[in-house]
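Listing 4. Sequential folding, example run.
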Amino acid sequence: MSARDNTSSTEQQGGDPAARRKPDIDAAKLIAAKRRSARRFEELVQHYRKLGASDTDIVAAMVASPLMINSLGRRR
């Protein structure tokens, strides 16, 4: 049997966890851009991807925003 490796992926990559912090995503800008301009929305998404945010992070920020309207059409 082999021993299990209990180090985190950040430690395995040799990086400092603080250096790999996710960027602050401005969900309000993303939501406004999505409503007005597909091109601007894509530019913002590409910007956040370059900063290290995943698509999951971007969508989660948008969903958590009070600007997002729920399925009933009411603001949260």
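-- end of first protein; second protein begins --
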Amino acid sequence: MSDRFDYLYDKEPLDRSSEADREVEALERLFAPLAHDGRGLPPDFLVATSAPRARRWLLPLFSLAAALLLLVGWLATRRGDDGSVELQPGDTGRSIVARDTVRAVRAEGVLVAELQAGGELRVLGFDDARVSLQLVRGRVRIDVPSPATKGAPALQFASANATLEPLGFEPCLLQLDADGQLVVLRVERGEIAGRCAGREFVVPAGASWTVRGGLPGWPLFDDSRDALREAVDMAFAFEAKAGAEVLGKAAYGIVTAAKSPRDTLVLWHLLQLEEAASQAGVQARLIELAGTPGKVPAKAWSRDTWLEHLRAVAWRSPK
């Protein structure tokens, strides 16, 4: 056997009397028809050469593409393989957009949110004291498992001149919609405090609150009667057209339409109108529908006293 078949033998020193490697020998027989027959190459045979100098400008593009791939990989680890976003302290100014699908947004120990397709959420601030977010447009559902956890930052939302934050220790679940100057908050669990145009609002579970063009409406339970809703809408229209000075008459219409204990949600908010609320008989109506707050008689009770009383006796969801 010629020297070119010496690799068939695996013994050192070479011993042609030993048995050849059968697997390699079988491969030799299999590919024998494809072996070169010793003929020279034809004159017109194309031989591979180095790339023309004109194409060398492509090399920087390849380097840029590799860098972009690394960047995409880093972003994927930052936002999660499923498109989710993990917020971190110092993310101030960051914008999160859900283009075609829902995106999960999380801040450890603070919130878990679902930004619906077409929505945009902006991080206004994130430090040890507070996580502040703004819904620019679209819809977001927010789960706040522990609103008052020791050592965790507080949570605040903003949208169209309104600010929102969870109240108390009960877990909160809410939905926030923003469409231009229209903002709608719906609370499914817990309680949310709101501020807008110098007024304070409390939105408990089962209630909604609307802000139109920077002007706040009055919170209502979702099961409120049509008559009360019409009175509240009329009060909003009066104020939008003629200003806050007409709220006294508008408040009287709401007081007249309030018929059940849960209607006191609107009446409690009217107390901050002070003189207009007194003229409309808001407190007298509160007493009729929910009784007096506490056993100590008084001519009037503070809004905080009424709030604690109404939470306990009037705003619980019907079974």
